[in-house]
From TrEMBL:
EC number: 1.2.4.2
Pfam families tied to this protein: 2-oxogl_dehyd_N, E1_dh, OxoGdeHyase_C, Transket_pyr
Cofactor(s) the protein needs: thiamine diphosphate; Mg(2+)
Chief location bin: mitochondrion
SUPFAM superfamilies for this protein: Thiamin diphosphate-binding fold (THDP-binding)
Organism: Apolygus lucorum (Small green plant bug)
Protein name: 2-oxoglutarate dehydrogenase, mitochondrial
Keywords attached to this entry: Glycolysis, Magnesium, Metal-binding, Mitochondrion, Oxidoreductase, Thiamine pyrophosphate, Transit peptide
Xref: PANTHER family: 2-OXOADIPATE DEHYDROGENASE COMPLEX COMPONENT E1 (PTHR23152:SF4), 2-OXOGLUTARATE DEHYDROGENASE (PTHR23152)
Role, per record: The 2-oxoglutarate dehydrogenase complex catalyzes the overall conversion of 2-oxoglutarate to succinyl-CoA and CO(2). It contains multiple copies of three enzymatic components: 2-oxoglutarate dehydrogenase (E1), dihydrolipoamide succinyltransferase (E2) and lipoamide dehydrogenase (E3).
Keyword Transit peptide recorded: yes
Enzyme class: oxidoreductase
């Protein structure tokens, strides 16, 4: 054993190591009792306490000084500092000096390379000292906008050598010289230190010299990969990342992998070159300067596919989209090239520019030999707007596949650097990542970091060190990587895919790159970034750099590099020739999730009935009105007991209120196998405490009962989801969810209708115009609590006028009357806008969303006071078989009995009907005034309005609304009334005057305005 110890002290147990060391040092006795720190002299500890750590640093007599302990603690501090702060000095900018080029660069200046200078260069981004003052700068900006190295990463921050005792002359030397002197002191650099359990730089070795420790830490954290992960509050996850970054040889790639990487980089570069050659004057938002994105995405897909993923949903801005479609999704090049031709569309709709379109592809992944489904969601110019839509679409696909852990379906989101930190929807989307009803079980985010936002320097466009700092809020690890080191990018992509598969949490890859051509191909970046673009002009493309590297490594020959380029160029030329034969653009080729079989075999102008059997209504009503089956054990709130009893009484009386009508619509669809998902802020209870779809045990946390999930043993699932306090993000999520499967009713409810203001981008760019631009149908329902109740301007109006303004029906065109008049209107409109006044109307219009042979978004103004209004009730007779949604409800009172004597015909919509009805009764005008309710405002019910006006030939016509004159429906219905009547009769307005604010904040003024509205409406 002693001989073994002499050959290798680590080959024996630590106790024998201590014994032999003490013997060799001439200790009084070989055996030393176990250490007792309390009994040691002040400033010393027994040698056995440090035997495994000292690496030959024992002192005769069996004790060591505190200095040795401090040195070991300093090593641990250094290791942790590199792990936590190394990213600040990593070489991330491809426009700066690469580490691999530094030796030759310095050699040109000084005659020979100097390892110490290289290390100092890596550790300190700001180069100081006259010896290397002429070195080129590290690019224009640092990735973290800070050129100062953290002091924890400077060796002299830790006083290993007692350099305070150096002579005054040395002290006055320049900081760099002093630093280099310390780094080269053999007694420091040659000392061996035991590695803590929180590092993997040693591989199988448990100790290294200080020199090896510094070199390996620099290689792991300060070269071309900078990682932020130490903020993660899980030791397991931190160690997982450390192991994949620090283990020796972990970045090694075999020759075949390098050749594949070169081929993919060649295709990415060749595609952009081909487009630039054929369409030099066209905008395409090419990928030049960030071509590594294509191999990166393909590597993530390969790795994820190998780990079991079968479907990937992707969202991205415009930069590089065509390249992603061509070389990641493998969309036929002919279809892409056709988009550059000035051809007419073969499909309905206005279309969109080519770099906004999405696609859907199923193909074989040749690397893993597994089938993969890839979808890229269409996106407008509103950067990051597609983020929540991708997440909703991914969640829906996971739901329908029964993929509760996200093992088969995943999402990838691409971002620009300026948008990632500047767009609030990024934060909103991140905050959905771990919510039970919204998680997609981990998303891989890739930031194409151009280091510039259009023309704005990042130092003026963000306050955070990195553009990716928003991701820290959800403990997502962030990998910054230099785009000009393709192998480092591949390594990071592998880690990201494995992280997502292991922990099912978000991860961010920040590819630091540049835009070779400016914002787009027509842009002149030298106007605002002259220094950056002078550097870019002198920067070789990454393909040339990597090709030269592989040639130098004898992986490929120059001829092979050229051959790969020429082959891809021929593929592009052949596709270009085929594209020239096309005569039309087919937008259906660009659908991101085609609904296979949904439209086949259906009459596009025939809708299924929406009424249901009375037995079904009774069954749903009773189940919805009953306490949990284990009511003796499940304690519900006393207020809920009263609500349930009131509901049961309504069912027995064969009538429904708003909440019961909604529950019957949902329940009857669930019975038919239609999945229903209701989402939004506080939707489980309902903002106005009317819904109560989730009952909570009053004494047991998280114990709940969902009546609508327990209607039938074989019913479809019902999801009711309280969301985060987000409109933009959550509405986008639900839109994406609705796009996946047409046979589901997906609803988003605003807490108050006014709150849709903060989701306007989703409304304008996706819901209103999505079908026209992208042939993308959706049956999403937006529930918008609306109505002036005297609660102030922010709790009154859902801005009905905005939705109506975006409707595409022509106000001057009366469609031909036929049996299919109503459904043809629905087929041709972009969305449906309704303001129902009865629970039966609400019941039918919800069911009609599924009954239609196509899908249209439904914008539904829902009430507040009508939720409990005693007259806002409907009979079962209005909901049973052979009943349907009434676009317009005519007057059925005394006025309708003698229409020729009616003096005034009022048209209205929504809750104002009940105010008008009461005012008419109070004034005893029931025979003089008829009131018609327009339940569906758009598409405008021309045929029914024409019929009602003809029924009352002598009546004055008037539109009454509670909203102000420049708001509400008046500006929409007025010209359509004139078209209906051929301008033969005038239609007057009764309501509030014009105003800038949606409503007054004064209750007294509100009542005064209401009285004036009613007085004007009742005047004959």
């Amino acid at each position: 054993m002693y001989n073994s110890w002499l050959a290798d002290p680590s080959s024996v147990h630590a106790s024998w190591d201590a014994y032999f060391r003490n013997t060799a040092a001439g200790a009084a006795q070989a055996y030393v009792p176990p250490p007792s720190l309390a009994g040691a002299p002040k400033g010393h500890v027994p040698i056995t306490a440090l035997a495994p750590f000292m690496g030959g640093g024992a002192v005769a007599g069996g004790h060591v000084s505190e200095k040795v302990i401090d040195d070991h603690l300093a090593v641990q501090a250094i290791i942790r500092s590199y792990q936590a702060r190394g990213h600040f000095v990593a070489e991330l900018d491809p426009l700066g000096i690469m580490y691999a080029d530094l030796h030759s660069h310095y050699k040109d200046r000084k005659g020979k390379p100097h390892e110490v200078v290289v290390r100092q260069y890596m550790l300190g981004k700001t180069i100081r000292g006259h010896h290397i003052a002429k070195l080129d700068p590290l690019g224009i900006n640092s990735a973290d906008l800070d050129d100062k190295p953290p002091p924890e990463l400077l060796y002299n921050h830790y006083a290993f050598a007692n350099w305070q005792n150096e002579s005054a002359r040395i002290k006055k030397e320049h900081e760099l010289l002093l630093h280099n002197k310390l780094l080269t002191k053999e007694e420091d650099m040659g000392r061996t230190f035991k590695l803590p359990a929180t590092t993997f730089i040693g591989g199988k070795s448990k100790s290294l010299t200080l020199k090896e420790i510094l070199e390996r830490l620099e290689a792991a954290y300060c070269r071309h990969i900078g990682v932020e992960f130490m903020f993660i509050n899980s030791l397991e996850q931190c160690n997982w990342i450390r192991q994949r970054l620090e283990s020796p040889g972990v970045m090694d790639m075999d020759a075949n992998s390098k050749r594949l990487l070169l081929a993919r980089l060649t295709r990415a570069t060749g595609f952009e070159s081909f487009l630039a050659k054929k369409w030099s004057s066209e905008k395409r938002f090419g990928l030049e300067g960030a071509e590594i994105l294509i191999p990166a995405m393909k590597q993530i897909i390969d790795k994820s596919t190998d780990l079991g993923v079968e479907s990937i949903v992707m969202g991205m801005p415009h930069r590089g989209r065509l390249n992603v479609l061509a070389n990641v999704c493998r969309k036929p090049l002919e279809q892409i090239f056709t988009q550059f031709a000035a051809l007419e569309a073969a499909d309905d709709g206005s279309g969109d520019v080519k770099y906004h379109l999405g696609t859907y592809i199923e193909r074989l992944n040749r690397v893993t030999n597994k089938n993969i489904r890839l979808a890229v969601v269409a996106n407008p110019s509103h950067l990051e707007a597609a983020d929540p839509i991708v997440q909703g679409k991914t969640r829906a696909e996971q739901f329908y596949r029964g993929d509760g852990e996200g093992k088969k379906v995943m999402s990838i989101l691409l971002h620009g650097d300026a948008a990632f930190c500047g767009q609030g929807v990024v934060f909103e989307t991140f905050h959905l990542s771990d919510l039970p009803d919204y998680t997609t079980h981990g998303t891989i985010h890739i930031v194409v970091n151009n280091q510039i936002g259009f023309t704005t320097d990042p130092r003026f466009s963000r306050s955070s060190p990195y553009c990716t700092d928003v991701a820290r809020v959800v403990n997502a690890p962030i990998f910054h990587v230099n785009s000009d080191d393709p192998e480092a990018v591949m390594h990071v992509c592998n880690i990201a895919a494995e992280w997502r598969n292991t922990f099912h949490k978000d991860v961010v890859i920040d590819i630091v790159c540049y835009r070779r051509n400016g914002h787009n191909e027509m842009d002149e970046p030298m106007f605002t970034q002259p220094l950056m673009y002078k550097t870019i002009k002198n920067t070789k493309p990454v393909l040339d750099k990597y090709g030269d590297k592989l040639v130098a490594e004898n992986i490929v020959t120059p001829e092979e590099v050229k051959d790969v380029r020429d082959k891809y160029d021929k593929i592009c030329e052949d596709a270009y020739a085929n594209a020239g034969k096309e005569t039309h653009i087919k937008y259906k080729d660009w659908l991101d999730s085609p609904w296979s079989g949904f439209f086949e075999g259906k009459d596009p102008l025939k809708s299924s009935p929406t009424g249901v059997k009375e037995d079904t209504l009774i069954h749903i009503g009773k189940r919805f009105s009953s306490p949990p089956p284990n009511a003796a054990e499940f304690v519900i709130h006393k207020g809920i007991e009263r609500i349930l009893k009131a509901r049961m009484q309504m069912v027995e009386n064969r009538e429904v209120d708003w909440a019961l009508g909604e529950a019957m619509a949902f329940g009857s669809l669930l019975k038919d196998g239609i999945h229903v998902r209701l989402s939004g802020q506080d939707v489980e209870r309902g903002t106005f405490s009317h819904r109560h779809h989730v009952l909570h045990h009053q004494t047991v946390d998280k114990a709940t009962y969902r009546p609508l999930s327990n209607l039938y043993p074989d019913q479809a699932p019902y999801s009711v989801c309280n969301s985060s306090l987000s409109e933009y993000g959550v509405l986008g999520f639900e839109l994406g969810y609705s796009m996946t499967n047409p046979n589901a009713l997906v609803l988003w409810e605003a807490q108050f209708g006014d709150f849709n203001n903060t989701a306007q981008c989703i409304i304008d760019q996706f819901i209103s115009s999505g079908q026209a631009k992208w042939v993308r149908q959706s049956g999403l329902v937006m529930l918008q609590p609306h109505g002036l109740e005297g609660m102030g301007p922010e709790h009154s109006s859902a801005r009905l006028e905005r939705f109506l303004q975006m409707c595409v029906d022509d106000p001057d065109y009366f469609p031909p009357e036929s049996e299919e008049f109503a459904i043809r209107q629905l087929h041709d409109i972009n969305w449906i806008v309704a303001n129902c006044s009865t629970p039966a109307s609400y019941f039918h219009i919800l069911r009609r969303q599924i009954a239609l042979p196509f899908r249209k978004p439904l914008i539904l103004m829902t009430p507040k006071s009508l939720l409990r209004h005693p007259e806002a009730r409907s009979s079962f007779d209005e909901m049973t078989e052979n009943t349907e949604f009434k676009r317009l409800i005519p007057d059925v009172g005394p006025a309708s009995q003698n229409p020729s004597s009616v003096k005034k015909l009022l048209f209205c919509s929504g809750k104002v009907y009940y105010d008008l009805k009461k005012a008419r009764t109070d004034r005893k005008l029931d025979s003089d005034i008829a009131i018609c309710r327009m339940e569906q405002i758009s598409p405008f019910p021309y045929d029914l309005v024409k019929k009602e006006c003809a029924k009352y030939p002598n009546a004055k016509l008037c539109w009454a609304q509670e909203e102000h004159k420049n708001q509400g429906a008046w500006s929409y219905v007025s010209p359509r009334f004139q078209t209906t009547l051929s301008r033969s009769r005038d239609v007057s307005y009764a309501g509030r005057p014009v105003a800038a604010s949606p409503a007054t904040g004064s209750k007294m003024m509100h009542l005064k305005e209401l009285a004036s509205l009613l007085e004007e409406s009742m005047s004959l």
